[in-house]
Design a protein that fits this description.
3 strands; about 240 residues; mainly alpha; 9 helices; single chain
Length: about 240
């Protein structure tokens, strides 16, 4: 569940509920946290640290939470289903769904994991068609995803219809436009977290993948610092090159 630590933690204090993380994402993170603590899993290399201004609690809550992993998961799933029905923050729902899927696989519940709509959410959000990290040239809702442009059309607020060409069908994108490089990085990371789960489930159990590689044009992920550096460099070059 890729998140930029400082922005995520700052958003928890937002006075507007719409600007705070979706409950499904919060409960999916709680589920993952309990699993990590119960299994003494160390941070992976390159993981972004929590900013120093956020202090750890003086009293650990672990003893009270260690048996609540499945309860947190059930609440996350319920919140995700309500979020889908309400068309509420699909990008965060995709991230939460990825976390829930991984949890179920680790708990030895592959059939239940395969029932979660991680690939459908990724496609609905256009995460599989982000083929550039050049923020300046990204199209609304995602990056330059192959189709020639966007056209307006009927649908829910914040949705977009992408124009048709020889290779791509019209696509409905249910996320708002990318408004900064951090959001673009999170979308790319979210997609590859989902696709890694898709591949992993297929390899482990011999099942077909949920999203064919022929449908994917998203760029490979980079560390946050490398992504920001390259993205800014590409934007600057585009200002000077024809």
């Amino acid at each position: 569940m890729p998140v930029e630590p400082q922005r995520f933690l700052d958003s928890l204090a937002s006075p507007s509920a719409a600007n705070r993380p979706h409950p499904a994402l919060l409960y999916a993170l709680f589920t993952a946290a309990v699993y990590v603590l119960n299994n003494d899993i160390k941070p992976f290399p390159g993981a972004r640290a929590i900013p120093s201004k956020y202090r750890k609690p003086e009293v650990s809550l672990y003893s009270s939470l260690k048996d609540l992993g499945s309860s947190f998961h059930d609440r996350a799933k319920s919140e995700m289903e309500q979020g889908i029905l309400a068309a509420d923050r699909f990008e965060e729902l995709a991230r939460a769904c990825a976390g829930m899927t991984r949890y179920l696989v680790l708990m030895g519940k592959p059939v239940e994991a395969s029932m979660l709509p991680i690939c459908r959410l990724a496609v609905a959000c256009g995460l599989h068609r982000i083929d550039s990290i050049d923020f300046a040239t990204s199209t609304p809702g995602l990056s330059t995803t192959g189709p020639l442009g966007t056209t307006s059309g009927p649908g829910e607020a914040g949705t977009q219809f992408v124009a048709e060409n020889e290779k791509f069908r019209p696509k409905l994108v249910v996320v708002p436009p990318v408004n900064d490089r951090m959001t673009l990085w999170e979308r790319i990371e979210t997609f590859w977290a989902i696709k890694a789960l898709d591949w992993g489930i297929g390899l482990l159990y011999g099942w077909p993948v949920g999203l064919a590689e022929s449908e994917v044009s998203t760029v490979w992920p980079k560390s946050y610092d490398a992504f920001i550096f390259v993205s800014i460099a590409m934007t600057l070059l585009s200002c000077f090159l024809p």
